[in-house]
Write a structure and sequence with these properties.
Elements: H1 9-26, H2 28-45, H3 48-64, H4 68-84, H5 88-104, H6 108-119, H7 127-140, H8 144-155, H9 162-178, H10 182-199, H11 201-217, H12 221-237, H13 243-255, H14 259-275, H15 279-295, H16 299-315, H17 319-335, H18 343-357, H19 360-376, H20 380-394, H21 399-415, H22 419-438, H23 443-449, H24 454-467, H25 470-479, H26 497-517, H27 522-541, H28 555-562, E1 566-573, E2 576-582, E3 587-594, H29 595-612, H30 618-640, E4 651-654, E5 672-674, H31 678-685, E6 694-698, H32 705-713, E7 720-722, H33 729-736, E8 741-745, E9 748-749, E10 759-762, E11 765-768, H34 769-775, E12 781-785, E13 793-795, E14 799-801, H35 803-810, E15 814-818, H36 827-839, H37 844-853, H38 860-868, E16 869-873
Parallel strand pairs: 1-4, 4-5, 5-16, 6-7, 6-8, 8-12, 12-15
Antiparallel strand pairs: 1-2, 2-3, 9-10, 10-11, 13-14, 15-16
Length: 875
């Protein structure tokens, strides 16, 4: 800038205005007050040039805080003053800034006009800033390659101011990431971070945020989460709003398949950005929300959100983003059976637009949808070409993009009736997914990640079923079943200690309030939810050494471990259920028919069993018992009868995620053991036997817990017993870490909304699954004599998460738990019989089978226990 060395009053004001503007660029909140003060003084003094510069400074602060309408008003005034005052250089500066504001308001034509006029006015010294704005505009309307070239020119110009160089490096990193050039993107975001420290806290926060974006787009999701955590602190400290942060974070949560969290954040982002005068980014947030909703299965809402975004992008003249939104709109229409003939042309044009724009991930997604729509319209040649185009575009991309490419190639091979090609591409994709899943730092994220491979698994399964090779079919299903449980994180007992301590204190407050008033205050419940969310998020983003994908065990190896057992692996194929039956001599496939009736009967049975645990009139209980008996008989007929098994043969059941709450022990006369996958069952079979030490725990508020503990302890010499006030979370955790057999008689709380916080109630509060997992505690054998202790939460890809899955994954070899609420005093007899069998050296499955046979099933609650308790694992 010039004229800043004048010693007149006007000159002094100009010097202050320039300093305020330069300060606001790096620290909007810190310098806004000074900028406004200069505006007031310049008005009073009639110092036009100082006023123009100060108005521009305040406008920049308003823009940084996403108040773009107010910023535009200030810049309109500044441009009028500069024209009237004959200040062409200052007018060029104002128009350059106004172009940035118009762009964020979605007024791309006005932004172009401002940049063109500014180009005729600015000096060579201000040319880099003008070029920067041009580049950003080009990137935002979809001309990513052209914008990136200008940004490279700016970085190669040594005279460019440091703030312009910072923004150029930052935006170039985003452009390169969008184009799939992740190594270059990370180099440039590192350069931007180094330069940002010279500019101010706002730039440091922006760059930290965008580093998270680049990391996420390159597939380094847990690193991205850590970076986002740092960025939100920096942005908040700089006094900046978080709407854009929420929008970018939504995309990362979608990649992690954390769909409820992504949907909530996406709505928050879209609403905040629309409220705060940032329609440019608000439209992007609306599109991301549409993607999340589509993945969650609501195609109608997804199409409405995508079409709304298309309208916004069209008004902003952003053709690349119109193409991205068209992908979601057309796919949502396809999923809701509302495709139209013209959709083939629409989506092919969108794919071509995205390809020309350098938006690689978007082009891959568009080609896949184009192939699906073309295939449905009978245009098989177009479909195969589009799918192979997606594969070719994806081959150098990050892992999740490569997965999409492999799916596209698999679809193309299936359309060409090339079974070997389908299997090759699906196998390669699932191998990539296994490596990606193993690198994630939490059991929950690994379970969620399996959803990325569901369609790959189904494609391959269809080929193998047609090939009529049962053993290969069995081996294939193990690739996509409970694979997340084959990797265990190293213990991290010191992780988030402060947050865990704060949550424990809060739970103590809740317990006290519940004892005093019988209710839990809403404010405390909200604080508890927030605390759990922080701990869960910390688990997602913690640093962890990449794990090794768990070994999938083939049918031949399973057969060697079966001894006298038969293993039945249930598999969903479309709307039908199949059973893969493995015994000592062969593997065979049994078609069981539609899955829906089995699910209906299972739900009916669970409802009836819950009814039988509550007091009621004899007639009502008789009705519930009759309903339960009918459902059991129907389930036997649908799921077990067609297998043609010896009624007394010991059985190992591998259920689908749809059927893991079926009471399998009640459907077969012989001993039954259940496991999330055959590979995990095989791992439990190979584990060493339990040491002699036995721990028995009786939780609070259960009148039958202490008698049950006494009955169990009487079965084992030297058993350690924790009851009453001695059964605290700390004492139980310490005792469990060295025990070989643990029996827990206590209240259980299933948290389907947040499975890692499912808990068992101790004297001083809940013992959560999260706490057990962080400490790496998994006794060799366990009995969870609590309600719903086996009711794991299901995820896509036949993944389950809860006490059973987590303990088996960690190292527990055998476990007994219940899929339904259980009676208090009625479980004493079952526990005593079970532990007598264990003391006699029986396996968990055999001990439970003998204990169930000793129950009085004429009693409603005895019948519930007979149905509900199940043995898991192979010990």
């Amino acid at each position: 800038m010039t004229g800043a060395d004048d010693e007149s009053p006007d000159g002094a004001l100009l010097i202050r205005a320039i300093a305020a503007h330069d300060g606001v660029v790096g620290d909007p909140a810190g310098f806004e007050t000074e900028a406004r003060s200069v505006v007031r003084e310049a008005r009073r003094a009639g110092a036009v040039e100082a006023l123009v510069v100060a108005l521009r400074a305040v406008a920049w602060s308003e823009r940084a805080q996403q108040r773009n309408v107010a910023a535009l008003r200030l810049l309109m005034e500044a441009s009028r003053l500069a024209r009237r005052g004959g200040l062409p250089h200052r007018l060029g500066e104002v128009l350059t800034t106004r172009a940035a504001v118009n762009l964020e308001l979605g007024k791309t034509t006005a932004a172009r006009r401002d940049l063109h006029r500014a180009g005729e006015l600015v000096t060579a010294a201000d040319s880099p800033d003008l070029q920067l704005k041009r580049a950003v505009l080009l990137c935002n309307v979809g001309h990513v390659a052209s914008g990136a070239e200008i940004l490279r020119e700016i970085l190669s110009a040594p005279a460019a101011p440091v703030d312009v160089r910072t923004r150029a490096a930052n935006n170039l990193a985003l452009a390169e990431s969008l184009s799939g050039e992740f190594d270059r993107a990370l180099e440039h975001i590192d350069l931007a971070a180094a330069l940002a420290r010279e500019v101010g806290p706002a730039f440091v926060g922006f760059v930290a945020h965008n580093r998270g974006v680049v990391l996420a787009q390159s597939g380094r999701l847990s690193e991205a989460l850590r970076q986002f955590d740092e960025a939100v602190q920096l942005l908040t400290a700089a006094g900046l709003p978080l709407g854009e942060f929420y929008a970018e974070h939504t995309e990362t949560l979608l990649a992690l398949r954390a769909l409820p969290e992504a949907a909530e954040l996406g709505r928050r982002a879209a609403d905040a950005l629309e409220l705060n005068d940032v329609p440019l980014i608000a439209a992007e947030a609306r599109l991301r929300l549409a993607e999340v909703v589509l993945h969650a299965g609501d195609a109608e809402q997804a199409r409405a959100e995508a079409d709304r975004a298309i309208g916004q992008f069209r008004s902003q003249r952003r053709n690349g983003w119109v193409a991205l939104a068209t992908v979601v709109s057309v796919e949502a229409g396809r999923q809701s059976a509302r495709s139209q003939a013209q959709d083939v042309g629409r989506i092919c044009r969108a794919a071509d637009t995205l390809g020309r724009s350098g938006m690689v991930a978007g082009a891959v997604a568009a080609d896949i949808v184009a192939g699906r729509v073309a295939s449905a319209a009978g245009r098989s040649g177009t479909a195969r070409r589009r799918w192979m185009s997606a594969y070719d575009r994806s081959r150098e991309g990050p892992v999740l993009l490569r997965l999409q490419g492999r799916l596209a190639a698999g679809l193309a091979a299936a359309a060409a009736d090339d079974g070997a090609g389908v299997l090759a591409h699906c196998r390669a994709g699932l191998d990539d997914l296994a490596a990606h899943r193993a690198a994630l730092p939490s059991m929950e994220l690994r379970a969620l990640a399996s959803g990325h491979g569901v369609e790959l698994g189904r494609l391959g399964l269809g080929v193998l079923l047609r090939s009529r090779r049962p053993a290969r079919t069995f081996d294939w299903t193990e690739r996509t079943r409970a694979a997340a449980l084959l990797v265990a994180d190293p213990p991290a007992p010191d992780a988030v200690i402060e947050e865990r301590a704060a949550l424990a204190a809060l739970r103590a407050e809740l317990a006290e309030a519940r004892r005093g008033t019988g209710v839990e205050p809403a404010a405390l419940l909200a604080r508890q939810a927030a605390g759990e969310a922080r701990i869960r998020r910390a688990t997602w983003s913690r640093r962890a050494s990449p794990g090794t994908p768990g070994a999938v065990v083939p049918a031949s190896a399973v057969r060697d471990l079966l001894e006298d057992r038969v293993l039945v692996s249930y598999v969903r194929h479309g709307a039908d259920l199949l059973a893969l039956v493995v015994d000592r001599t062969r593997t065979r496939v049994v078609e069981l028919g539609p899955l829906a009736p089995l699910r209906f009967e299972s739900d009916s049975l669970l409802f009836a069993l819950r009814r039988l645990t509550r007091p009621g009139r004899p007639a009502a209980l008789e009705g519930a018992r009759a309903s339960a008996e009918h459902a059991l008989a129907t389930l036997r007929r649908l799921a077990v009868g067609p297998l043609g098994l010896d009624p007394d043969v010991p059985l190992v059941v591998i259920p689908t995620s749809d059927t893991h709450r079926v009471p399998w022990s009640a459907l077969h006369d012989g001993p039954v053991g259940v496991a999330p996958s055959a590979s995990l069952w095989a791992a439990t079979r190979r584990r060493r036997g339990a040491p002699a030490s036995v721990l028995v725990v009786a939780g609070p508020d259960l009148p039958g817990a202490e008698p049950e503990a006494a009955a169990v302890a009487a079965c084992h010499t030297g058993a350690v017993v924790h009851t009453g006030s001695a059964a605290t979370t700390a004492s139980v955790l310490e005792a469990m870490s060295g025990a070989g057999l643990v029996h827990l008689a206590c209240h259980g709380v299933l948290r389907s909304d947040n499975p890692i916080f499912s808990s068992l109630q101790m004297a001083d509060g809940p013992l959560t699954l999260h706490e057990l997992d962080l400490r790496g505690i998994a006794p060799a054998r366990m009995v969870l004599a609590s309600c719903d202790s086996a009711a794991d939460t299901s995820y896509a890809g036949d993944e389950v998460l809860g006490f059973v899955g987590a303990l088996l994954s960690r190292g527990t070899a055998g476990l007994v738990a219940s899929i339904v609420p259980v009676g208090d005093s009625e479980s004493i007899a079952l526990a005593a019989h079970l532990h007598r069998g264990l003391a006699d050296g029986l396996r968990m499955t055999d001990a439970l089978h003998r204990a169930r046979a000793a129950l009085d099933t004429s009693d409603p609650r005895g019948f519930v226990n007979w149905c509900g308790f199940t043995a898991y694992g192979g010990a």
